[in-house]
User: Fold this.
Amino acid sequence: MKQKSVEKASSKKNEQAKIKALFAKERVIVPKQEGVDLLLNKNFGTVLSDKSLQLSLVEALYLLEKGVICLKDGHGRDIDFELFVKKASRIDKEFWTRYLVFKDLRTRGYVVKTALKFGADFRVYDRGVKPGQDHAKWVVFPVHESSILTWHDFAAKNRVAHSTKKRLMIAIVDDEADITYYEVRWLRP
Assistant:
C-alpha cells in the first residue's frame, strides 16, 4: 500500500514538472508560463499576441512523446499519445506521415518549422542555424510510399522550392516507418 502512494506521488511530481499545454479544436496552446521560454529556446512553437505559445500538431506530439509537456483538453482531461494521434489524424489525414518525418529530422538535429505560408509542409534549417539568424535550407514534403505523386504535383512542389529559394526535399515514408529523403535541385545543362 505504501509503495502505491509513493508511486502516485512520484507520478504527480513528474506531471507538475512538465509544461502544461491545452488542445483546443485544432490548436495546441501553451499558456504564458516559465516553460514558454524553454520551448522557444529549443525552436518550438510560435508566440501569440498574449505571449502564449502555439505549437503545431507535430510539435505537440513530439513534445508529448518526449515527456516535455502534459496535454489537456478543454475540460481538463489528460490527452495521452494514442488519443492525441487519433484526434490529430482526424484533423489531418496525413498527420502520422508528417509526424514521422518531423520526428526523424528533429532527432537528427535539424530545426523543423511549419511552412504553410510557403506552400510546403515543413521548412528545415541546417544544423546549428536558428530561425531568424538565417533562412531555411529546405522545404520538405512528406509522402507515404503508397501515395501517388503526379508529375504535375512534383512540378508544383519544385516550383514552390525554387520560388522561395530553398532546396526541395521529398521525404518518402514506407510502411515500416523508414524514411528515405530525396533532394531535388535545378540543373542547367
User: Anything to note?
Assistant: Residues 104 and 179 are 8 Å apart (CA to CA). The first strand starts at residue 19 and ends at 24. Residues 95-184 form a domain with the Trna Endonuclease; Chain: A, domain 1 fold (CATH 3.40.1350.10).
